[in-house]
Request: fold
Amino acid sequence: MTTILCAGVAVIDFVYQLDEMPRRAEKYRAKDAWMTGGGNAANASVAISRLGGHARLAARLGDDAVADMIVSGLEVEGVDCALVRRFAGRKSSFSAVFIDAAGERQIVNYRDMDISFGAEWLAAADLGLFDAALSDTRWPQCGAAVLGRARERGVPGVLDAEAPIALAEEALLLASHIAFSAQGLRDYAGHSDLAKGLREAARATGAWVCATDGAKGVLWLDGGEVRSVPTVAVAAVETLGAGDVWHGAFTLKLAEGESEEAAIHYANAAAALKCAGSGGRASYPRRADVDALLSG
Reply:
């Protein structure tokens, strides 16, 4: 089984479905609500597991009931949490997520900034064998440690590049593949021209680069030429976690030996299927679902 080492943030999301986003200081009644695991790296690890890979997660948590919920939710999905570290006296991260009738989301997150950002313990750990690594930018020291180890082993090291990018400079230089969100690339480049930003990022880092832009699809740099892969059209119900599913699927296909372009097509299909369902991780697709969509 293909093993992906994921590194970064893990949270719990409390999700509320509304007709429209809250705009005033008053009470709102949700049409539906649920609790689900969240966080870029944690979500990607679940997506990888659903798609037939073996995911291992390195993350920082507090020593609290929220941490218990996070870990149990991941382990139910088959994610290996041996590299998840809990810090005594600290709080785990959680979010309130509002989803409107169009499937768009608004997130209010709490993060305990007194949990140590140091990754020395992880850099010194036996990370075992893995076929690719994937890191978000929420714990940049961890990203540098994991992507550095991937580079040493000659396997793909993918950075899920979300703003703010400046904090993850070392990880940017160690990644073999950088998958920016459109917002992340604008933050990195300091302007809104995504094609120009991709060329600048490639020159500065030497990495293969792309930018995901929601329903507009994915831009990627192919030998200096900017190319695009359209998204798969679906009736969007909920976009929460779609980007994380994309990164997990993309990294898994790279680890399985697929080209970057093929991995983009696969990841676009996986993310589209997630958007077509609701319930957070409950709507993450299985491998057979993605294969059926691509073959149909």
About this structure: The first strand starts at residue 3 and ends at 8. The chain has a mean pLDDT of 94. The longest helix spans residues 260-275.
